[in-house]
Design goal:
Layout (H helix, E strand, L loop, with lengths): L5 E7 L4 E2 L4 E7 L5 E8 L5 E5 L7 E8 H6 L10 E7 L5 E8 L2 E4 L4
Parallel strand pairs: 1-8
Antiparallel strand pairs: 1-2, 1-5, 3-4, 3-6, 6-7, 8-9
Length: 113
Amino acid sequence: MDGRKFSTHVLDTSVGKAAASVRVTISVLDEIQEWRSLRAAQTNADGRCQLLEAGEFPSGVYKLTFHVGSYFAERNVKTLYPAIDIIVDCSENQNYHIPLLLNPYGYSTYRGT
């Protein structure tokens, strides 16, 4: 599974724009069913972020934590969600792109391409 990649794209639907500078931490569920932190990343100006590159992305269950509280605080916007966890089963040998559609009082996600 050397060639596959893991990425995200964060869009702020309350303003109709990409959410830049959102910190995302990536964890994997280990063999004793505990989360092991792998790395932190940050969305670019277009709201996109490469989470794991080819060669560092074995099959498993991954948790993405989107630290959106600081994103909204920088814009003087209150939010119900200081952080959003999305847990994804990445067991197939393919790329995974997990977008997050975000607003201060709700969010949704889906399997992208």
